[in-house]
Amino acid sequence: MSYGPKRKMTEEHNTSISAIGTLFIPGLDQLVLQVYHNKFAQVPLDLGLLAQHGILQFELEDETFGATAKWRKVVFSDEP
To answer: What is the reported pLDDT for 75?
Structure first.
């Protein structure tokens, strides 16, 4: 989970993966989808479209070689 030579998604590797989604159940009768975007995707998903449906989205912060990869929530102007 750090930036460096052993990353699984890069400019040359796994660019066909637009994002990875996770489903979890935080409580009774609840189902939450979280989407983690691949910044190297050849065909990225539309962040605005997903936000319209209340889907939590994350993207990687700017890279610092050797640092631990950190995800930040994608926030739109009409979200809290």
So the answer is: 86
Element at 51 (helix H, strand E): helix 47-52
Token pair of 1 as six digits: 């989970």
d(CA 35, CA 14): 16
Distinct helix (H) and strand (E) counts, the chain = 1, 4
What pLDDT sits at residue 70? 85
Domain boundaries along the sequence of the chain: 1-80
This model's pTM is above 0.85 = no
Measured CA to CA, the distance from residue 61 to residue 65 in angstroms comes to: 12
Q: What is the CA radius of gyration of the chain?
A: 14
H or E segment to which residue 48 belongs: helix 47-52
Amino acid at 64: T
* pLDDT (0 to 100) of residue 23: 95
